[in-house]
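Problem: given the chain below (138 residues), write out its structure.
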Amino acid sequence: MTSKSLGVLLALALFLACVPVFAHHSFAAEFDVNQPITLKGVVTKVDWLNPHIYVYMDVKDDAGKTVNWSVEGAPPNTLYRLGWRKDTLKPGDPVTIDAFKAKDGTSTANARQVLLPDGRKVFAGSADDGGPKATPTK
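Solution.
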């Protein structure tokens, strides 16, 4: 292999290593701190994946129509350190999530606090994402 080919491969490897950094977003890029929302509904699906978990839930709107919301949480490792486990929320669980709406007007939000089926309130956001900080729980 020539040194030129090796240089191209090295540059490509460095670029690919940086791709995940470009994919991450801050809270302010996608969500509106001035649009808080409380979602009460039933969990339909939980994606426990990097870079953020997603909780999908059916919520009845003001007209009584069921809307499926996609609610982003912190990264799995962060939630694990906060006491969450993969089975903390399961499909069928009733849940209340305090969140902030997406700027694009879709049924997407960023979670801050979750009232779990067992009555515990837990923080679900990422404290370093630029969004509102955790609120004290009782």
